[in-house]
């Protein structure tokens, strides 16, 4: 059993590695694994695999051949590393996605330089989630270097495409038994949700496309056609007046952070009507009444709502418009959806992290849920493994922002917590 003295020495060893966790994070940031399209997955997977193989892990590289996005130019290469303990026991798995979103505008530092400054590492993916990945590696390496004996096994994976749904990453691996017992018993996903918080799950998602269909005519005689853009305007006005106030009133028992995300939300992801958008040099657009207008909806829903209800309230608005306006015509197309996921607060992985957070930070752990989805859904729904949470260093609101960073001290604290939680879980059945 991992006792107090053992943990004290282990924590000391992790403290001594603050430079190493920063360097490892910076090295990962310098591999620009931008998704889409899925750049540099292979060098990133190999970089991780080679490091862990040198520490005695058995490393597998698993390419999701035939999965969406996979090609010889952009291979969807996942890395899974495993190290056996002594004798039979459970397996604790740390899963991180290696992909990052495009940097976007507004950076004051090079997003792929991995700059280390004032106790922080800067760059795209610093907090989401190469810092968490680095912390988990340092945590497990410290256990090994300290010579701590444990039953069972520890796995670390670096998987692809989380930012685009995880279908060639965790979903693909889960379909092949990589996230199910007997191979894996407990999963910790080091997404950035604060070093003192255990993230039990996430809200549901329903993406869809509304297409309003009109009738084309000369732009000088719009009365001869039916404008799809005006029809869409009417739909958006109804959503604004009727749906938004209703969504704002729904509160979930899920501990979603930030607090404004504890309700149902809807984002108009994109809108397009009429002729294709033109460049600056293309001259004037031709005079037409738009016969098509499309709107992509990004609806985040709660444990207390069902996908059918969520869809129906949009259909109801569209049908009401059809009744009011004889020319109104529409099509609604599902794009993708994910059910809400919530791990029970007394699940073993939650309790182990709670104890470790209290031991390291001296304050009780917070339980939270994520506003957006992450790979936990695949572990739960495909792997049927429900002892899975997100726990990792970093500030959630910095994800996908310019000048993204992670605090080195937070990574060090999280690495201690991950190490202590892993040992707690591994010794659980033996004690
Ligand atoms: Zn992430």
Describe this structure in words.
With 431 residues, this protein is an alpha/beta fold. It is 34% helix and 22% strand. The chain folds into two domains: 4-202 and 340-428, Zn peptidases (Aminopeptidase, 3-Layer(aba) Sandwich), CATH 3.40.630; 204-338, Alpha-Beta Plaits (2-Layer Sandwich). The chain contains ten helices and 16 strands. The strands form four sheets. A six-stranded mixed sheet has the order 1-2-6-3-7-15. A four-stranded antiparallel sheet has the order 10-11-9-12, with helices on one face. A three-stranded antiparallel sheet has the order 4-5-16. Helix 1 runs antiparallel to helix 10 (408-428) and helix 2 crosses helix 10 (408-428). 45% of the residues are buried. Zinc ion is lined by residues 97, 128-129, 162, 191, 374.
Compile the SSE list and pairings.
Layout: H1 4-15, H2 18-29, H3 41-54, E1 58-63, E2 77-84, E3 91-97, E4 116-117, E5 120-122, H4 126-145, E6 153-159, H5 170-175, E7 186-189, E8 197-202, E9 204-213, H6 228-249, E10 265-273, E11 292-301, H7 307-324, E12 329-338, E13 341-342, H8 348-361, E14 366-370, H9 376-381, E15 388-390, E16 405-407, H10 408-428
Parallel strand pairs: 3-6, 3-7, 7-15, 8-14
Antiparallel strand pairs: 1-2, 2-6, 4-5, 5-16, 8-13, 9-11, 9-12, 10-11
This protein binds zinc ion.
Residues 97, 128-129, 162, 191, 374 line the site of zinc ion (ZN).
What is this entry, summarized?
The chain is 34% helix and 22% strand.
Give the N-to-C terminal Cα separation.
7 Å
- Binned, the helix content reads 25-40%
SS-based class = alpha/beta
| CATH superfamily annotation of the largest domain | Zn peptidases
Q: What is the global morphology?
A: elongated
Mean pLDDT across the residues is 96
What characterizes the major β-sheet? 6 strands, mixed
**Heteromolecules bound:** zinc ion
Radius of gyration: 24 Å
CATH architecture of the largest domain: 3-Layer(aba) Sandwich
Would you give the CATH topology of the largest domain?
Aminopeptidase
DSSP helical segment count: 10
Give the neighbour order of strands across the main sheet. 1-2-6-3-7-15
- Number of β-strand runs: 16
Sequence stretches where pLDDT stays below 50 over 5 or more residues: none
């Amino acid at each position: 059993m991992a006792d107090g003295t053992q943990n004290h020495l282990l924590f000391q060893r992790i403290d001594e590695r603050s430079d190493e966790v920063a360097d490892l994070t910076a090295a990962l940031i310098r591999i620009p694994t931008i998704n889409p399209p899925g750049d540099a997955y292979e060098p990133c997977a190999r970089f991780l695999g080679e490091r862990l193989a040198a520490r005695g892990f058995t490393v597998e590289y698993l390419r999701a051949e035939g999965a969406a996005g996979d090609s010889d130019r952009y291979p969807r290469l996942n890395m899974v590393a495993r190290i056996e303990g002594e004798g039979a026991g459970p397996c604790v798995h740390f899963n991180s996605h290696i992909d990052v979103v495009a940097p976007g505008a507004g950076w004051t530092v090079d997003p792929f330089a991995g700059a280390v400054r004032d106790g922080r590492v800067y760059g795209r993916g610093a907090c989401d989630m190469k810092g968490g990945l680095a912390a988990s590696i340092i945590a497990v390496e410290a256990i090994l270097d300290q010579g701590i004996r444990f039953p069972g096994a520890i796995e670390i994976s670096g998987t692809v495409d989380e930012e685009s749904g995880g279908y060639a990453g965790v979903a693909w691996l889960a379909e092949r038994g990589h996230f199910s017992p007997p191979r894996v018993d407990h999963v910790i996903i080091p997404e950035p949700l604060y070093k003192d918080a255990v993230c039990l799950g996430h809200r549901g998602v329903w993406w869809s496309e509304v297409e309003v269909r009109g009738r084309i005519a000369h732009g000088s005689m719009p009365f001869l056609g039916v404008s799809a853009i005006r029809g869409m305007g009417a739909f958006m006005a109804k959503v604004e007046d009727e749906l938004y106030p209703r969504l704002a009133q729904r509160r979930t028992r899920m501990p979603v952070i930030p607090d404004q995300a504890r309700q149902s939300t809807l984002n108009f992801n994109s809108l397009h009507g009429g002729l294709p958008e033109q460049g600056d040099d293309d001259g004037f657009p031709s005079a037409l009444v738009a016969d098509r207008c499309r709107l992509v909806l990004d609806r985040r829903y709660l444990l207390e709502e069902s996908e059918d209800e969520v869809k129906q309230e949009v259909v109801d608005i569209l049908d009401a418009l059809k009744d009011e306006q004889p020319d109104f015509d529409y099509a609604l197309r599902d794009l993708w959806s994910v059910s809400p996921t919530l791990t029970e607060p007394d699940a073993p992985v939650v309790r182990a992290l709670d104890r470790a957070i209290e031991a390291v930070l001296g304050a009780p752990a917070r339980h939270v849920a994520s506003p957006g989805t992450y790979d936990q859904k695949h572990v739960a729904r495909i792997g049927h493994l429900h002892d899975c949470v997100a726990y990792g260093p970093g500030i959630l609101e910095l994800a996908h922002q310019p000048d993204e960073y992670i605090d080195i001290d937070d990574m060090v604290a999280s690495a201690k917590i991950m190490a202590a939680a892993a040992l707690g879980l591994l010794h659980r059945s033996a004690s």
